[in-house]
Design a protein that fits this description.
This protein is of the alpha+beta class and about 525 residues long. The chain has 15 helices and 14 strands. It has 3 domains: about 120 residues, 2-Layer Sandwich (Beta Polymerase, domain 2), CATH 3.30.460.80; about 35 residues, no CATH class; about 240 residues, Cytochrome-c3 Hydrogenase, chain B, CATH 1.10.645.10.
Length: about 525
């Protein structure tokens, strides 16, 4: 087992959010008010005060971590809303929620990127999808849609060129049951509307002039050792990106001077699709947000809807959910470690050391949900099915006991023996890709990336959900912020997930036969 360094998240004695809100209202008595809408939380802030309020919240109140920036189209009120969720890493506790509302016709909000650098991409996304302009943003351009895209698709009145109906199922599909390819009846072909006068096969519409600014085609051919700045496109189709993702990298010799990420090549806008779905129709779409984390994505979505509906979940279903999401975490981290080592030059060998255990977990998913990766398993108020009686002809509880008490610990021990103290692994990862604690917080990193830079923040501890507050586990944390610690933190978290699953198994035995929805 790796030499885990564990530290618990800060204990919360007094709610830091309540204290922060009180101090904000004392500081800005005329400007701030609680969100007056029934069931809503957060503090309403005028747009011309948001920078000042945000600076005070970060500098004086300690809310140094910006978790998310979200856009909301309040079309019936002719307003746009921007919602900020901020946390205090030092004090712990829940989120301080700040909200700004502006006129929908000309929505402009001051950028908070100078205050929280992690707002950068999130503000760009809101501009791209909602059309809210962030004044003072250092690089306000589209991030998911292509530069010639017309409109802002998450506005409630935006429609794709071939728009059938406002709700599903569409009349062309049900109740008549007619089967056809939607593309065959789409007068726009690919359902894309190009700007007037623009042709997709033209080279006259250069959308990336800023990326290549300062790059020349000439080369100094005089003798002597010197380097030129070279711009290289890595991706969008490249084996090391593990997805359709592109990086425009500017190099001086072997030194990376600049890296511009270009994303959105596979953006499908699940949120827009979801506007015409019923709540339950959206569950399969969450599978596809990350095909290695189907169960976890299902869980997050159903928790949100259950909170809206006030739904209760049977005890057995809660334990099954925790079992599934912790096994999902193990699968995810096992793949992440394998891919990392593959990119470091170890090729497929280390990945295969955890391959059988991953397959066993996917076999459990298939036996339970009917699918190995796109599980569509969680339901509002429970889960779709109880655990099966057998997995691979073995009784399910016996299968799980062998998996977490024998197979996984043994496979991890072999994996660590092979990799953790390997001199090539250490040489290529220790001190490489350093991310300081301060930058990890400022840039709004999350999960293992944040914890590997010395921040013991885990939402299961900070804001417990399901039955996590009743489980005994530690928040794994590492302090060096390099590739090696990001490798170790995932091993640490696999061990903690095994520890959690071991505590879940007796509850599954005790609740056998109980309702799951």
């Amino acid at each position: 087992m790796s030499d885990i360094v564990i530290e618990d998240a800060p204990a919360v004695n007094v709610d830091p959010v309540a204290t922060a809100v009180a101090r904000l209202k004392e500081k800005y008595p005329e400007a701030l008010q609680d969100d007056p809408r029934p069931g809503y939380t957060g503090v309403m802030v005028p747009a011309d005060k948001i920078v000042e309020v945000a600076e005070y919240a970060r500098q004086e109140l300690g809310f140094n971590y910006l978790s998310s920036v979200t856009g909301v189209d309040l079309i019936d009120e002719n307003k746009m809303e921007v919602v900020y969720h901020t946390y205090s890493i030092d004090q712990g506790g829940s989120a301080l929620v700040l909200k700004v509302q502006v006129d929908r016709d000309e929505p402009v909000v001051p950028s908070l990127t100078p205050t929280w650098p992690g707002a950068d991409f999130q503000e760009r996304e809101i501009w791209d999808l909602f059309g809210i302009r962030f004044a003072g943003h250092p690089d306000l351009r589209r991030i998911l849609m292509w530069d010639g895209f017309e409109g802002h698709p998450l506005r409630k009145d935006w429609k794709e060129p071939f728009y059938e109906e406002p709700n599903k199922p569409f009349g062309s599909r049900w109740p008549g049951g007619e089967v056809f390819r939607a593309e065959d009846r789409n007068p726009y072909g690919k359902n894309v509307q190009y700007p007037a006068g623009w042709r997709p096969d033209s080279i006259d519409f250069d959308t990336e002039a800023e990326i290549y600014a300062g790059v020349t085609l000439s080369r100094d051919a005089t003798p002597g050792l010197k380097t030129d700045k070279v711009t290289v496109n890595m991706g969008p189709q490249h084996p090391s990106t593990h997805g359709v993702f592109r990086m425009v990298v500017t190099l001086d010799g072997e030194t990376v001077l600049k890296l511009d990420p270009v994303m959105g090549y596979l953006h499908r806008n699940h949120e827009k699709i979801g506007e015409r779905n019923t709540f339950i129709q959206n569950i399969p779409y969450t599978d596809r947000l990350d095909y290695l984390c189907s169960m976890g994505n299902n869980h997050g979505y159903v928790l949100a809807v259950e909170k809206l509906l006030g739904s209760q979940v049977p005890e057995r279903a809660e334990w099954i959910r925790i079992l599934m999401v912790e096994l999902t975490r193990i699968v995810n981290h096992a793949w992440a470690l394998g891919f990392l080592l593959n990119d470091l030059g170890a090729l497929q060998t280390p990945m295969l050391y955890l391959y059988i255990e991953r397959e066993l977990i996917l076999d459990l998913f298939e036996a339970t949900a009917g699918s190995r990766m796109m599980c569509n398993y969680m339901r509002f108020g429970g889960v779709a099915y109880d655990l099966p009686t057998h997995v691979r002809t073995q009784p399910t509880m016996e299968f799980l006991h062998e998996l977490v008490y024998d197979r996984l610990p043994r496979a991890l021990e072999e994996f660590e023996t092979l990799i953790t103290n390997n001199e090539i692994m250490r040489a290529r990862s220790i001190g490489v890709g350093y991310l300081s604690l301060e930058d990890a917080i400022a840039l709004s990193t999350a999960g293992p990336l944040l914890r590997a830079s010395g921040v013991p923040y885990d939402v299961r501890r900070a804001e417990p959900y399901s039955y996590y507050e009743h489980l005994d586990f530690d928040v794994a944390v590492r302090y060096n912020g390099d590739i090696y610690d990001r490798y170790l933190i995932r091993l640490d978290e696999i061990y903690q997930s095994i520890r959690i699953v071991k505590q879940v198994l007796p509850h599954l035995k005790a609740t056998k036969g109980a309702p799951v929805v």
